Amino acid sequence: MPEKMISVKVFRYNPAVDPEPHYQTYEVPLEKGMSAMNALDYIYQNIDGTLAYYDHAACDLGICARCVGMIDGQAALFCQTVIQGDVTLEPISKSRVIKDLVVEKKGEHEG
Domain boundaries in the chain? Predict the structure, then answer.
């Protein structure tokens, strides 16, 4: 039985080289119980190793909140939010983007 493929639309922006933010869409096989983080991991490991996001190596429990972002326009944790179909993933703040889904947190790089 073929896997169901979903479209994962991801906000992409590297202020050092991109004149403007853009979105890139990836086709990802949907698995039961798949989180938004699992989809990002699949993209990074199998399609596009240049994607920047907070991975879950240190947490994956919803405790650290480093992976908070926008999932279809709603703030949520990428590691804890189960996706069931096509989805759009964006940073929590587009004005503080370091690269792609990685944003500068308040208090970082301050004095």
Answer: 5-103
Q: What average pLDDT does this structure show over 23-41?
A: 96
89: left (phi over 0), alpha (psi -120 to 50) or beta: beta
Architecture of domain 5-103: Roll (3.10)
Is the distance from CB of 101 to CB of 14 less than 8 angstroms?
no
Query: Cα(first)–Cα(last) distance of the chain, in Å?
Result: 56
Judged against a pLDDT cut of 90, whether residue 97 lies above it is answered with: yes
- Please report how many Cα atoms fall inside a 13 Å half-sphere around the Cα of residue 46, on the Cβ side: 10
pLDDT at 4: 94
Amino acid at 89: L
CB 36 within 8 A of CB 87: yes
Which residues are CB-contacts of 53 (< 8 A; sequence separation ≥ 6)?
A: 40, 44, 67, 78, 100, 101, 102
Q: Which amino acid, 67?
A: C
